[in-house]
Amino acid sequence: MYGVWTPEQVQAAEEPVLARTPEGALMRRAAYGAAGVALRMLGERTGGVVGRRVVVLVGAGNNGGDGLWAGVELRRRGAAVTAVLLSPDRAHPAGLAALRAARARVLTEVEPAVTAVGRADLVLDAIVGTSARGGLRDPAPLLVGAADTARVPVLAIDTPSGVDPLVGTVPGDGSAVTAAETVTFGARKPVHVLNRARCGPVTLIDIGLGPELPEPTVRVLDAADVGARWPVPGPTDDKYTQGVVGIAAGSATYPGAAVLASGAAALATSGMVRYAGSAADEVRAAWPEVVATDHVSDAGRVQAWAVGPGLGTDDAGAATLRHVLDAGVPVLADADAITLLGADADLRARAAATTTLVTPHAGEFARLVASLDDPPDPAVDRVTAARRAAAELGVTVLLKGNATVVAAPDGRVLVHPAGSSWLATAGSGDVLSGVAGALLAAGLDPVDAAGCAAFVHARAAELGSAGSPVPASHVQAALSDAIRSVREAV
Ligand SMILES: NC(=O)C1=CN([C@@H]2O[C@H](COP(=O)(O)OP(=O)(O)OC[C@H]3O[C@@H](n4cnc5c(N)ncnc54)[C@H](O)[C@@H]3O)[C@@H](O)[C@H]2O)[C@@H](O)CC1
Ligand SMILES: [K+]
Q1: 441 is in an annotated binding site
Q2: Is the ipTM of this complex over 0.95?
């Protein structure tokens, strides 16, 4: 597990460290770490360092200072360094003096700078870091565009410029750095987990902030965390003691959702899966181990319900949802169940009164929060949107997307940054529902159930895909390998 801290938290943590270290020491630590990553990238991509062309895009603040000092280090190692000053009169004075003394080229005019970027082996993006506000300012978009056009790899210093460090979105006209890699200092910031596509792999450099950092704003589970939480039957367990999950999903028109969710539940945990609904025949045919009936009222005892995929939003769907919300066990509500919750205050009150985990995509989220004052918008800030929905509706929220956000009513937040978007495929959510429902039935807290389910779901997509599209039934089929891989990581 690792933590993520807001720019504000990081800046506050830097203050006491700055006060007790010699002037400029923190920046030199950061820059030395950045230069190390740049040297590795040059070695990997060009086979050397000496004479390789590195262009540093230098902004007005300390992020620019990091870039200048990293340039000094690269110059020392023999690279041909060019610094492009985007705000020439505000460039970090000590860093600029040191870079000039190291006999690097310094440019302030746009035209030669664009040419230099286009010919570079590596660009260091030190335009702006944690104090970024709004979109990139001229002439930065031109230089960032030149690197993109020439396909020059960019190493983002601290954060990819043009991407909001706190929420990970690209404001303004959409110009922003797409980094091949990012090197960050002291602590990971939200952009690193909310916008992986812009950051690339992130290297964290220790600059001594550890003791000063408060509780992180967001946490990220790793494979070992998920493996350690995954339920494993003990010597005295039988099929009932491990938690029975009930799946209330699918219909005669949409039996696929029922088959995907029930099968995923059967693969996720040992013990028992019950299915209740009008796709009982199809579920039985595909998964003979699932105990299937036609209606939730005669399904027998379960320790959690997963309700919603393919359920329908008519009166029968609402009655099923009401039944499971009143069953006194944790409930996972997805798909049509979320639409029903959004439309019905009475159902929302029942959901808040029990332990409920909802798993909306963007459209379902909008319906879910439509009744709230000033409904939160994930397009503006995913973490805040999920956190507010959880707190105000009294349910745990798993907001799907390239970065999955899990928020609990008590304010805890997990993020799962996906490595790809192959999971954006029909039926994939049904598989997630089955897995998360099974984990709730096994007794996991909703945040852990959601976080572990999201992780294994994404891992199954990776294993099932290996670079090609992966239909939901293949994600389902890869669940066993995914669970094995996280258990092996413990
Ligand atoms: N405080 C410290 O001692 C340390 C700071 N570090 C670096 O310092 C950075 C933060 O430095 P600063 O607080 O000076 O701020 P930045 O360097 O992030 O930004 C500086 C200035 O850039 C301008 N700016 C804001 N938004 C912009 C945009 N969208 N496009 C173009 N220009 C924009 C503003 O004038 C802003 O004040 C961190 O990201 C990190 O790289 C590291 O060196 C570690 C130590
Ligand atoms: K940057």
Answers
A1: no
A2: yes
Q: Rounding to the nearest 10 degrees, give the CA dihedral for residues 454, 459, 461, 464.
A: -150
**Fold exhibited by the domain 2-216:** Rossmann fold (3.40.50)
Per-residue pLDDT at 172: 72
Yes or no: say if 292 and 274 are a contact pair by the CB < 8 Å rule.
yes
Compute, in angstroms, the gap from residue 112 CA to the centroid of ligand 2.
21
The larger pLDDT score, comparing residue 8 to residue 250, is at 8
Predicted confidence at residue 173, as pLDDT, reads 67
Choose one of 32, 92, 131, 173 to mutate for the ligand 1 pocket test, by most ligand atoms within 8 angstroms of C-beta.
Answer: 131
What pLDDT does 239 receive? 84
Using most ligand atoms within 8 A of CB, pick from 10, 72, 130, 157 the residue to mutate for ligand 1: 130
Quote the ligand 1 centre to 488 CA distance (angstroms).
Answer: 41
pLDDT digits over 76-94, tens only? 999 999 999 999 999 999 9
CA of 309 to the centre of ligand 1 (A): 46
Ligand 1, pocket residues at CB < 6 Å: 14, 18, 26-27, 30, 59-64, 66, 127-137, 140, 157-158, 185, 207
65 is in an annotated binding site: yes
Residue 66 annotated in ligand binding:
yes
| 419 pLDDT more than 80 | no
CATH code: domain 223-488 is 3.40.1190.20
pLDDT at 241: 87
- pLDDT tens, 11-34? 999 999 999 999 999 999 999 999
Q: From CA 234, how far away is CA 243, in angstroms rounded?
A: 13
Q: Which residues contact 188 (CB under 8 A, 6 or more apart)?
A: 2, 3, 4, 5, 202, 204
Q: What is the mean pLDDT of the chain?
A: 96
| 429 annotated as a binding-site residue | yes
- Cα–Cα distances (Å) from 467 to 10, 175, 420, 422, in that order, read 36, 28, 9, 9
Q: Which of these, 306, 394, 298, 296, lies nearest to 347 by C-alpha position?
A: 394
- Sketch the domain layout of the chain as residue ranges: 2-216, 223-488
